[in-house]
Specification:
alpha/beta, seven-stranded mixed beta sheet, four-stranded mixed beta sheet, binds pyridoxal-5'-phosphate
C-alpha cells in the first residue's frame, strides 16, 4: 500500500491520503470506516483533486444525520442526493433488506421472476395517477430515462408509426447520464465532451427567467406560454416525426426550477393534439418530494410515462423504473405469445433486495404519512427559505415542495466557486450537507425533517452565505 501512496504523492495528492490514513478513529470503529488510500477511486461528478485534498467522508447515517469517521454528526440537508426521503437507515427498511438477502439473493430477470417484483409493481402502479398501471424496473434514474425513450420509440414502431423518432427535451433539463438522457438533457457540460449524441433531438426552452420569476414561492406565475414552443418545434419537424417529449415537473439538478403555473397542462394538451407521448421524469419529484406520490398528481396532469428512482427505496438499494399507461403496454402485447415483446431489460431489473427495500419504503411512507407531512411542511419550509432574501450575494430563491434553490452571485472569473465553498464549509464547519449546482445552493432534506431542523438548516445556510461573501 505504501507504494500506492508514494504514487499518489508524485501526482500531488499523497498528502491528503496520508492525512486521511492518520485520521483518528473512535475506539469501537471498524477499520474499514477510514479509507486506506484515496488514489484509486475516481469520484463521479466531483472535482477529484480538490476532494482528495480535503475529503468529505461519511461513515454512517441515521434518520436526519450523517456521521463522519471520527463520529461528528452532520445534518442532511439534501436527503443524500434527493433520495433518502424516509430518512436514513430506517429500521423497517434495513430489516427488509436483511431478510431478503437471507431468503433470495437473485433470480433471473429475463424469463423468470420472483413474487416481490409483482407486488412492488402493483404498489407503484396504485400510487400513480390515471391508467399509469404497468411498471418496468431498472436500477437508476439514467436507466429509467433511457428505458422510457426506448419504449416511446418502440411504441410508435409497433403501431406502424415508425417515422416518429424525434425526442424533445428541454434546456436545463437533467435526465441522467446515458446517451439518451444526455441527448434530451440540456446541460452543456454533460453534453459537449461526448460527441454527436442521439440524432434527431430538439429542446424546449428552459422555464426559468429571473427577470419574471425572482423570489417566487412555489410555481411562478410567469411562463406557461413557454409550453407553446412545442408548437413551433412541431411546425419545424412535423408531428409525424416526433415520438416523445420528456421534462422534469421541477428541474432539480440545474437549481430547483419549478414548472410555471399552467405550463404542464399546456404541454399535455399540445402533446395530445399531435399524438406525441409525454414523459415526466420524476426521478427527483417522485415519492413525496412535492407533497404527493408523484408531481403529476400535484399538477393534475397524467403523462404517458413516469420515470422514477431514488425515493422508491429511500436511497437504500439502487432501483429505478418506468410507469406506463395501459395503452402503451397493450400496444406491445400482440404477436405470437412465446416471442419477447420488448427487447430491453437489465440483469438487475427488479432485483430482490431492491424490491424488498421498495416495499418496506412504501409501507413507511404510508404508515407515517410522509407525503402528507411534506405537504404540510411546505409553507413553513418556503417561509424559512425566503428568510434568506436580502442577504448579500443572494440573487434569487426558488422553492416548491420540500426543495429550495438559492442563487448566489459569482465572484469575478470564478463561476461556481462561491457555492462550492459554501458546500465545503457547510460540511467541515457547520456540520450540514448542502448541494452546490453551478452557483446555486440546493436544499432538499429527508421528508421526515422537523420544524426545528428546518430552522437549523436555514440558520446554518445564512451563516454560510455570510462566510463566503
Ligand atoms: C430528473 C432526473 N433524472 C434522472 C436522473 C439520473 O438518476 P441516476 O443518477 O440514478 O442515474 C436524475 C438524478 O439526479 C434526475 O434528477
Amino acid at each position: 500500500m505504501s507504494g500506492r501512496i508514494t504514487g499518489a504523492s508524485e501526482r500531488g495528492i499523497g498528502k491528503a491520503a496520508r492525512e486521511t490514513k492518520a485520521m483518528p478513529s473512535a475506539p469501537a470503529q471498524r477499520a474499514s470506516a477510514v479509507p486506506n488510500d484515496l488514489e484509486a477511486y475516481w469520484l463521479p461528478f466531483t472535482p477529484n483533486r480538490a476532494f482528495k485534498a480535503a475529503p468529505r467522508l461519511i461513515a454512517r447515517a441515521k434518520d436526519m444525520h450523517y456521521y463522519t469517521p471520527d463520529g461528528r454528526a452532520v445534518l442532511d440537508g439534501t436527503a443524500g442526493m434527493w433520495c433518502t426521503n424516509a430518512g436514513h437507515n430506517r429500521d423497517p427498511i434495513v430489516a427488509a433488506i436483511r431478510a431478503e438477502a437471507a431468503e433470495l439473493d437473485y433470480a433471473p430477470a429475463f424469463q423468470f421472476a420472483h413474487p416481490k417484483a409483482f407486488e412492488l409493481a402493483s404498489r407503484v402502479a396504485a400510487l400513480a395517477p390515471g391508467d399509469l398501471d404497468h411498471v418496468f424496473f431498472c436500477n437508476s434514474g439514467s436507466e429509467a430515462v433511457d428505458t422510457a425513450l426506448k419504449i416511446a420509440l418502440a411504441y410508435h414502431n409497433v403501431r406502424g408509426e415508425g417515422a416518429r423518432t424525434r425526442l424533445i427535451g428541454r434546456e436545463r433539463g437533467y435526465h441522467g447520464v446515458g446517451f439518451g438522457g444526455i441527448s434530451v438533457g440540456g446541460i452543456v457540460n454533460n453534453r459537449k465532451f461526448f460527441g454527436a449524441l442521439l440524432a434527431g433531438v430538439d429542446h424546449l426552452p428552459a422555464t426559468y427567467s429571473r427577470e419574471h420569476q425572482a423570489f417566487s414561492k412555489g410555481e411562478p406565475d410567469w411562463g406557461a406560454q413557454l409550453a407553446d414552443e412545442l408548437e413551433r418545434i412541431v411546425t419545424l419537424h412535423d408531428a409525424s416525426t416526433i415520438a416523445a417529449v420528456i421534462v422534469e415537473p421541477m428541474a432539480g439538478s440545474t437549481g430547483v426550477l419549478p414548472a410555471p403555473k399552467g405550463y404542464l397542462p399546456r404541454l399535455r394538451a399540445i402533446c395530445d393534439k399531435h399524438g406525441i407521448l409525454l414523459v415526466f421524469d420524476e426521478v427527483i419529484t417522485g415519492f413525496g418530494r412535492l407533497g404527493h406520490a408523484f408531481a403529476a398528481e400535484r399538477y393534475g396532469v397524467v403523462p404517458d410515462m413516469i420515470t422514477f428512482a431514488k425515493g422508491i427505496t429511500s436511497g437504500s438499494v439502487p432501483m429505478g423504473g418506468v410507469i406506463v399507461r395501459k395503452g402503451i403496454y397493450d400496444a406491445f402485447m400482440r404477436g405470437p405469445a412465446h416471442v419477447v415483446e420488448l427487447f430491453h431489460g437489465y440483469t438487475y431489473s427488479a432485483h430482490p433486495l431492491a424490491c424488498a427495500a421498495g416495499l418496506a419504503t412504501l409501507d413507511l411512507y404510508r404508515e407515517e404519512g410522509i407525503f402528507e407531512r411534506a405537504q404540510k411542511l411546505e409553507p413553513i419550509w418556503a417561509e424559512a427559505a425566503m428568510g434568506l432574501k436580502g442577504l448579500h450575494n443572494v440573487l434569487d430563491i426558488r422553492c416548491v415542495g420540500l426543495t429550495a434553490g438559492i442563487d448566489l452571485a459569482s465572484r469575478p472569473g470564478e463561476v461556481g466557486k462561491r457555492a462550492y465553498d459554501a458546500m465545503d464549509q457547510a460540511f467541515h464547519v457547520e456540520n450540514l450537507v448542502i448541494r452546490a449546482t453551478g452557483e446555486t445552493i440546493a436544499l432538499t432534506p429527508p421528508l421526515i425533517v422537523s420544524e426545528r431542523e428546518i430552522e437549523d438548516i436555514f440558520g446554518k445556510v445564512a451563516r454560510l452565505i455570510k462566510a463566503v461573501a
